[in-house]
Amino acid sequence: MLNLTIKNNKFDQMKILDRYIITSYLKTFISVFLILMLIFILQTIWLYIKELAGKELDIMIIVKFLVYFMPKLIPLVLPLTILLSSIMVFGSFAENYEFAAMKSTGISLQRAMSGLSIFIVILATTTFFFSNNVIPWAELNSYNLRRNIAKVKPSMAIAEGQFNQIESTPYNIKVKKKSGDRGQYLEDVIIHLKSVDGRRNQTTIISKKGELFSEKNSDVLKLILLDGYFYRDEYPKDSKAKKRKPFIKSAFEKKIINIDLSQLNKVDFDEQSKTDKYNMLDVIGLTKTIDSLIIKSESDYESFSKNLHLRSGLLKPVDKKEIVNDSIIAPKYLLDIFSTKDKLELVDAVAKAMKSSKQVITSKENTRKTQKAWLNRHIISLHEKFALGFACIILFFVGAPLGALIRKGGIGLPMVIAIILFLSYHFIGIFAINSAKNGSFNPILASWFSTLIMLPLGVFLTKRATADKGLVSFGSITVPLKKIFKIKEKDSVDYKFLSSYKHEALIDLIQNYKTLGHGEGTRYEALNILNTNGVSIDQLREKGITIDKGYEISQALAKGYKKYSKFAVVLYGIAIVLLVLFFVCKNNKLPSVADVSIKISIGSFLLFIIYYIKSLVNTFKFYKHINMQEKKPKLLLLILGIPLHMITYMFLNVKIKEDLKQNCLESLK
Question: Whole-structure pTM over 0.90, yes or no?
Answer without folding.
Answer: no
